[in-house]
Structure prediction request, 228 residues.
Amino acid sequence: ETGVTQSPTHLIKTRGQQVTLRCSSQSGHNTVSWYQQALGQGPQFIFQYYREEENGRGNFPPRFSGLQFPNYSSELNVNALELDDSALYLCASSFGDGRGDQPQHFGDGTRLSIL
Amino acid sequence: AQSVTQPDIHITVSEGASLELRCNYSYGATPYLFWYVQSPGQGLQLLLKYFSGDTLVQGIKGFEAEFKRSQSSFNLRKPSVHWSDAAEYFCAVGARGSYIPTFGRGTSLIVHP
Prediction:
C-alpha cells in the first residue's frame, strides 16, 4: 500500500512569486485535503477536494487554489506569495465523501520558505 | 463553529512514567474527535478516533483516550511512556455534517531517560 507522497520536500521562493505543490494520495483514497502548518501551530484547513471538485474551504484567500485529477492526485497553487505563507504544507487523503468522520492519512509535507 | 484547546504547550515526563495530554473542545453536539502524533520532519499519524459508542477508545502504540461529554474533554493517556513517544501531539475535532476539521495547537512531549 503506497502512502501519501508530496513534492517537493523543500522550496524557497520570494515574495510575489507563484508556487505549485503536488500530492499523490494513498492508493484507494478519493478525497484530498490541504493544510497549512505554521511553526509552532496546529494544521489549518485550506480546502478539500472530492471527485475533482472543491467541497470545503477554510479561511484562506482566493490566491490559494487547487486541483484534483482523475487519479485523485492533487495540486495546491499559491499566487502572489507573502512572507506569512512560509509554513509546512500538508496533504492528507481519505476514502469517502469528505465528511468529518473520515480519518485522514497525511504526507510528510512540503516546507515552503518565502524570502 | 467548533474549536479545540490543548492547554499544555510542553509536557515533560520520565521514561516509564504515565502520561495524560489534555484536550478540550467546543461544539454544540457530539463531535468526531481525533488524536494525531507528529514526529519531527514528518506528517501526522492518526493515533485514535472517537465517533460514538464506548467513550474509552483504544489506539495504536498503547495509547487510549476517554471522551467526557460533561467536561467537553478528550484526554489522551498512556500508562508507560517510551523514549520514542517524544513528539508533537494534536487533538482535532470534526463537526458532523461539516467538511472542515479543526486542530489544536499541539502539545510537545519531552521524554527524559
Observations:
- The interface with chain A takes residues 4, 32, 34, 36, 41-46, 49, 51, 90, 92, 94-106 of chain B (CB under 8 Å).
